[in-house]
Write a structure and sequence with these properties.
The protein has 371 residues and is α/β, with parallel strands linked by helices. The protein has 8 helices and 18 strands.
């Protein structure tokens, strides 16, 4: 029997204490409400991660990091009659998210800062601080479900609504973190969550979801990197796969594998970025077919449903980016902390730095970072 980890607390004794990470959005707000209704002793917390007042003040739309998020979360906590605090995680966010984001781009990779934030800030840092003040669990408004399998391991199951499923961005959570986490929203659709928020009178019921990376609200990644590093990010050559120079690029932080727009090349046909070479400061250009591959190697592995492959091959479905539908493949260990993934059909734009996440049906097997 597979156990749903988000079951309500039992009767009798003191109620389990849970700290809910509240972003000021509708999902985390309803998560706090649901847990309160299930009998948990709920405390709301917003994580202060912005690096300076100017950055925070310009985020007027209220994404998960802005000052508006604090205002909205505080109002929801007041309406729900639960304690509420703002905790400072600026240093952890800078070390594990911003610095990582910049370094990955400088090295020619395309990082996923939300995954790093989930693992190191929203879970590792928040969980430690919450446990230090006597909490039994932390909780979030993510669309995912936590289950304990018959083998004793904790894993994530896709949410009931595939359109909002967020298991891909949570693949790096550890067994300890999963065992102390609740995700009540994963059993609902987005429409159900908004309807519930409206029914109980939460003013954030119609608040739009944040789409961009929270610390780059204008989506100018290269500009942000240039402003926040002392590294020289010079122009360089566009080259074809044979090394012939095709033109000049603006600096490798402006590009990612699979990119077609914004290259500034007049080739008379669509061309794409197929590789970024930081050692030679080159951006390799090719045809559409060159962007497809049936093979990848990943490292930085984190296993959920299983404790490694034990030298065996395994058939799974793999997602190579958040928006990827997933594709059938076979995975096998090829070295210490390295897994090879061979797809049945070539996949477009397998991008170094992005996560690849392995699924067995709706359950997360594990994942890693594409090398």
């Amino acid at each position: 029997m597979i156990q749903n980890h988000t079951a309500a607390p039992g009767q009798g004794g003191s109620s389990p204490k849970v700290v809910v990470g509240m972003s000021g959005g509708v999902d985390s707000s309803v998560a706090a409400y649901l847990l309160r209704e299930q009998g948990y002793d709920v405390t709301g917390v917003t994580m202060q991660v912005w690096q300076d007042g100017e950055q925070a003040s310009r985020e007027e739309d209220g994404n998960c990091c802005g000052l508006k998020a604090v205002e909205d979360a505080r109002r929801v906590a007041w309406d729900l009659k639960i304690p509420y605090y703002v905790m400072n995680f600026r240093q952890e966010f800078k070390d594990h998210v911003i610095d990582y984001f910049i370094e990955e781009y400088v090295q020619g990779r395309t990082p996923n800062p939300c995954i790093a934030c989930n693992r190191h800030v929203k879970w590792e840092a928040l969980l430690k601080r919450s446990m230090d003040i006597g909490a039994d669990y932390i909780a979030t408004g993510h669309y995912a479900q936590i289950y304990r399998l018959p083998n004793g391991r904790y894993t994530l199951k896709k949410s009931v609504t595939s359109a909002k499923d967020q298991t891909y961005a949570l693949y790096s959570l550890t067994q300890y973190q999963l065992s102390h986490t609740l995700m009540p929203v994963g059993q609902y659709s987005k429409e159900e969550i908004r309807n519930l928020a409206e029914k109980i009178g939460l003013k954030v019921a119609g608040k739009p979801d944040s789409q961009e990376i929270c610390f780059i609200p204008d989506n100018d990644y290269a500009g942000f990197i240039s402003e926040n590093t002392s590294r020289q990010l010079p122009e360089g050559n566009f080259v074809d796969r044979e090394g012939r120079v095709l033109g000049r690029h603006r600096g490798i932080t402006h590009y990612t594998v699979g990119q077609r727009k914004g290259l500034g090349l007049s080739m008379g046909r669509p061309v794409f970025v197929v590789e970024i070479r930081p050692d030679t400061n080159e951006v390799v250009i090719g045809e559409n077919d060159d962007v497809f591959s049936d093979f990848l190697v990943c490292g930085g592995l984190n296993w959920m449903a299983v404790d490694g492959l034990g030298g065996h091959e395994m058939e799974v479905t793999a997602k190579i980016r958040y928006s990827h539908r997933g594709a059938k493949c076979v995975i096998r260990e090829v070295g210490e902390d390295l897994v090879e993934c061979c797809f049945e059909e070539p996949q477009r734009a397998i991008t170094p730095g992005q996560a690849v996440v392995f699924y067995d049906g709706d359950y997360v097997v594990g994942g890693g970072v594409i090398q």
